[in-house]
Amino acid sequence: MAQKKLGKQTLQFGSAPVILSKASVVGPKEGQGPLGSYFDLALQDNLDNQKSWEMSEQKIMQHSIELALEKAGLVPDDLDLYLAGDLLNQIISSNYTARFLSTSFLGLYGACSTLVEGLAVGSLLLDGEYADTVGVSASSHHDTAERQLRFPTELGVQRPPSAQWTVTGAGSYILTKAGSLLKIPQVTIGKIVDKGVSDSNDMGTAMAAAALDTIKVHLQDTGNKMEDYDLIITGDLGLLGLNVLKELLKHENLPTDNVSDCGIMIYAPDQDTHSGGSGCGCSAVVLCYLLDQMLKNKYKKIFLVGTGALLSPTSIFQGESIPCIAHGAVIEK
């Protein structure tokens, strides 16, 4: 019998992994948003002197892990393992960043849930004593995502109100077994939930059911209540998806006062992102802000629910619905 498993999908760590350091690098739009002053670096433009948007995204991720290592007083050789993922085909931003680090590497893909997936896998490795120090990164870029998943931005295609704006940004975290400030005592591994939504311009609605499923399972597995958390935050449903999630929670007689979303927090209403932010980089950089708030005692315990729409251009063109997933990580001060 699995000794560290709670209920169906939640894992309880015997020695809770610690977030030793963090770093965030964002694009100009994100730097001008309400959280702009909390990010380590905001670029002047989305190209950042690179030849392509894809090269720019890779440099953003590389810079974020370099900063996280520097803050921890470490160098790449100090990492036992590096876990990273992004939205691009074959996760090329992560692959080329791992080439720079030249350390053991596991590439991950969970769409916008990738950051939490990385925190979960990294925590498993640390608690299982397979590693002492693990790096975790996730990134996205507005222009690379538009080119791959929708239309190149040069075409000026009109976006519907339900569409979200892919965040240009990367967040990196150094996890260790030693320390006491910010710990990850539990993670809940999600399962695929597909309610038949096929509109790729409304991924928030598609992902809301997966977020509900993971929240409900987590509460059942742990015996916790919604009120036990200062904040339950999804990443990232956007405005439309969060409204759907709250209606679903109310239907389950669950309170919603402490429920929010990374895609709503990162942009101001006057920045014209329609339904808010999305992308692997969204929760990856917003979590950096949330951890700052935890260190300032605004929050003591949060439940980060990373939501991912696991679609591709091919599946959408073939009329497939969108399979979604949500992974959860408890973070405590």
Characterise the protein shown here.
With 333 residues, the chain is an alpha/beta fold. It has two domains: 16-176, Peroxisomal Thiolase, Chain A, domain 1 (3-Layer(aba) Sandwich), CATH 3.40.47.40; 183-332, Peroxisomal Thiolase, Chain A, domain 1 (3-Layer(aba) Sandwich). 35% of the residues lie in helices and 23% in strands. It contains ten helices and 15 strands. The chain has helices at 28-31, 53-72, 92-101, 114-127, 142-149, 203-222, 238-251, 262-265, 280-295, 313-317; strands at residues 5-6, 10-12, 18-26, 41-42, 81-85, 105-107, 133-140, 165-166, 169-176, 183-188, 231-235, 259-261, 277-278, 301-309, 324-332. The chain has a seven-stranded mixed sheet, with helices on both faces. It has a six-stranded mixed sheet with strand order 4-3-9-7-5-6, sandwiched between helices. Strands 8-13 form a two-stranded parallel ribbon. α7 links the parallel β11 and β12. The longest helix is centred in the first third of the chain and has 20 residues, at 53-72. It is globular, with a radius of gyration of 18 Å.
